[in-house]
Amino acid sequence: xxxxxxxxxxxxxxxxxxxxxxxxxxxLSFIARNVKPLAEVIIYTDQPLAFELYQNNxxxxxxxxxxxxxxxxxxxxxxxxxxxIEILMDATFSRxxxxxxxxxxxxxxxxxxxxxxxxxxGKVFMHLNEGKISDAHNPVxxxxxxxxxxxxxxxxxxxxxxxxxxxxxxxxWNAGVLGFNxxxxxxxGQVLRFTDLIYAAYxxxxxxxxxxxxxxxxxFSLLPAQSLIYHYWNLKEFRTLLIVFFGKYTTLPxxxxxxxxxxxxxxxxxxxxxxxxxxxxxxxxxxxxxxWKIPSLDLLITDPAQNQA
Length: 309
Description:
seven-stranded mixed β-sheet, two-stranded antiparallel sheet
């Protein structure tokens, strides 16, 4: 039976092999940061057998996802990120306590005691503040702001858009991390309604994140989790590397020993440096076949047997 002092970590991992591999890498970071005595890990998945290796070292429970449930949770708007909201509503329906949702492409940098203590004290978390929507130079956020300012919706969506339009200081927060106490879970209904209404008029992936950002910052004391949790949302290439990693290293001791060799925070630095280069330089590198590519596993991890030869 859950209590108001219980801690829960919620992870969704279904479908694509790369997403399953990301979730496994996240679980390795849970083990490395000694999460077991602190929190129950609830994995919403269609492949629970993929995580068997970690069950003795973590307090894991599973919530089954199948095609029918996923279709239902995508809703009439058929929106993949709507599933996250439904997962959180499902997780908090019969449980009380402190909840920390993590996207599969995250990894712990520090123990989570500080986060859970803050959540218990009434704070809420998202990953990081990406800046005011009205000041955004990011093309995605600029288009979003243009939509908000247009007021181009009708019916029940209009009051929501008018509230956004009048809130000139609203900031966009990354929703790869969400932390809140069950006493605040009523906000999930607001987020779901916002998402259904606004996505119908503006069918962009950012709508779910906007919904969480809007309600969490206007109703609660919202804090960033970026110093404790790394979110590598812009390194999709890491999935391919992880699939090879978990295919080659199949025991927990070797996975824990070698996981730092494929640190996504380090790998992304080279990608970001390449992306900042002049367009002509990048075009020349692509022509020569020297554009940025994620390194192969063999380049990152030398076979221990070769070192002993």
